Amino acid sequence: MGNLLEIFTASILNHNIALTYILGMCPLIAISTNIKNARGMGLAVIFVVTLTAIINYPIYLLLQATDATEISLLIFIITIAATVQFLETFLEKFIPSLYNAFGIYLPLITVNCVVLAVSLFFVNRDYNFVETVSFSFGSAVGWFVAIVLLAAIREKIERQSNIPKGLAGKAITFIILGILSLAFIGFTGLASI
């Protein structure tokens, strides 16, 4: 149990997939313009990352048993695409405002490197099923924390600061991400995975 908690904690803090490994930057920057959209995208990523890792784990074991691990990357991508398609259809039908807010970025979860990276990381780290679930959920929560923090800071700066013209928009976003990354790297040593 201690190892699972350590994997979960490390994947949120000092091994944060967005702020330490710098993965998933396109939707992180594009959707973090307000907290509501950031929260929605973060929840979608939590769902997709966790579900695809849970599905990909037994698939990888089957590929390993049949000595066909060479095609694991292709199979992982197909699983991710199917999961995102399901989520897209669900949101379009039941939460159209969130679906419209995501725009092009929802289908782009399919090619978001965070989703694929989590599946590749559990393979490379030889995690068992429970460790995979802990790691994938923790990584997704870490990405959620990163996008919500970034959105909150961007909203606050937009309302209360006079940012020089040259730093407005994406430039200040990259500076904020750099500072957040330094802060999260400060958790190094807390837990390892």
What is the topology?
Elements: H1 2-12, H2 25-31, H3 35-65, H4 72-94, H5 96-102, H6 113-124, H7 129-160, H8 170-185
Mean pLDDT: 88
Question: In which range does the helix fraction lie?
Answer: over 70%
The number of helical segments is: 8
Helix and strand sequence: HHHHHHHH
**Assembly type:** single chain
Outline the low-pLDDT stretches: none
What structural class do the secondary elements suggest? mainly alpha
* Radius of gyration over C-alpha positions, nearest whole angstrom: 17 Å
Euclidean distance between termini CA atoms = 14 Å
Number of strands: 0
3D shape: globular
Q: State the major sheet.
A: none
Strand content: under 5%
In total, how many domains does the architecture comprise? Answer: 1
What does this 3D model show about the protein?
This protein has one domain. It contains eight helices and no strands. The mean pLDDT is 88. The relative contact order is 0.22. It is mostly helical.
Tell me briefly what this model is.
This protein is mostly helical. The chain has helices at residues 2-12, 25-31, 35-65, 72-94, 96-102, 113-124, 129-160, 170-185.
Notable features of this structure?
193 residues, mainly alpha
